[in-house]
Specification:
Layout (H helix, E strand, L loop, with lengths): L2 E5 L4 H10 L4 E6 L10 E4 L7 H9 L3 E4 L6 H6 L1 H22 L2 E7 L21 H16 L4 E5 L1 E2 L9 H11 L3 E4 L3 E2 L2 E2 H14 L3 E4 L6 E2 H11 L7 E4 L19 H7 L6 H13 L2 H6 L20
Parallel strand pairs: 1-2, 1-4, 2-3, 4-5, 5-6, 6-11, 7-10, 8-13
Antiparallel strand pairs: 9-12
Helix pairs in contact: 1-7, 2-4, 4-5, 6-8, 8-10
Length: 321
């Protein structure tokens, strides 16, 4: 049994990882703007972007592993406010990696497929990144800062969906809300990803911790689909009418940040390393549906205390990229 410190523990990945990890390990959950409560878990509030705070928190909790999920992940907000994007995605990552290295804790940094330009897809860990928006640039510089501070760190690039503790919806939750209410919505046919269910990613991360891996790994779903195709497959899984979703180009959305068209990553390296097959989309969506039937989303949301319980400036926005 190891001791894990999870940053961004109220976010999409952080919350799901917290739920998975507490069954096997001692866990310290660190939040910034969304206070948590969960029996059997040590809950800590703090702002890791402030110099000295990471050292203090890591020193006090003394974890074996730190999984750094906290980040600014709203792509358009990052484009509008580059200073905050780089402060949270690069500078904060460096501070936490330095604190981990100084304490002897192993460090896992959660990154994104958006470090690539999406011109061809099927990117391996050997391919050179080439981000096209502020979010991607800030996350790439975060990777570089982490590995400079801690050369033995593990950097995981991913794209995920699932149930969220916060009101902010993941891609799957957004599609599902529109499908169930009958609201017509658009699915981008010219943006392709290889998404993985948050709990599947959490399980794989815990396996990776046991292997003491380092360097870059792509941990994604085993299938490359457009966002439109993702929505249609989700509709069919939940026995809903997919014609609510209209195929469209991302150009109609007028988004602040440019989007790479084909951000599908190759997971061959992690499959060979762990001797596994990455889950396909239908498998993941089936588990997403089963989780809802078991009231898993309600258990996640129950972790969040009232936001007035601990007032912290809300400039961290953990969630899907």
């Amino acid at each position: 049994m190891a001791h894990l410190l999870i940053t961004g523990a109220s976010g999409l990945l952080g919350g799901n990882l917290l739920m998975q990890a507490r069954e096997q390990h001692l866990v310290t959950a660190l939040y910034h703007s969304h206070p948590l409560q969960l029996e059997g878990v040590d809950i800590v509030g703090g702002d890791l972007s402030r110099p000295g705070e990471a050292v203090q928190i890591v020193g006090k909790s003394n974890p074996d592993w730190i999984v750094h999920c906290a980040a600014a992940t709203n792509v358009d907000d990052c484009e509008r406010d580059p200073e905050t994007a780089f402060r949270l995605n690069r500078d904060m990552a460096r501070l936490v990696a330095e604190a981990a290295h100084a304490s002897g804790a192993r460090f896992v940094h959660i990154s994104t497929d958006a470090v690539f330009d999406g011109m061809r897809g099927d990117y391996t860990e050997r391919d050179a990144p080439n981000p096209i928006n502020v979010y991607g640039h800030s996350k790439l510089e975060g990777e570089q800062a982490v590995l400079e501070a801690d050369p033995d760190a593990l950097v995981v690039r991913t794209n995920l969906y699932g149930w969220s503790a916060q009101p902010k919806k993941s891609l799957a939750e957004w599609f599902l809300a529109n499908l169930e209410s009958g609201n017509p919505c658009y699915g981008f046919a010219d943006i392709s990803i290889a998404p993985i269910l948050a709990t599947d990613l959490a399980d794989l991360l815990l396996q990776m911790l046991g292997e003491n891996l380092h360097g870059h790994y792509h941990v994604v779903g085993g299938e490359c689909v457009s966002k439109y195709e993702f929505g249609v497959k989700l509709a069919k899984t939940f026995t809903l009418q997919p014609d609510v979703i209209r195929s469209a180009s991302v150009e109609i959305a007028g988004l602040a940040a440019p989007r790479p068209p084909r951000l599908c990553l190759s997971g061959e390296k992690i499959e060979k390393t762990l001797g596994i097959r990455l889950p396909g989309l239908e498998e993941g969506l089936g588990r997403l549906k089963s989780q809802r039937e078991l009231n898993y989303p309600e258990h996640l949301k129950a972790m969040l205390r009232s936001p007035t319980a601990h007032a912290i400036p809300a400039d961290l926005r953990p969630g899907p990229a």
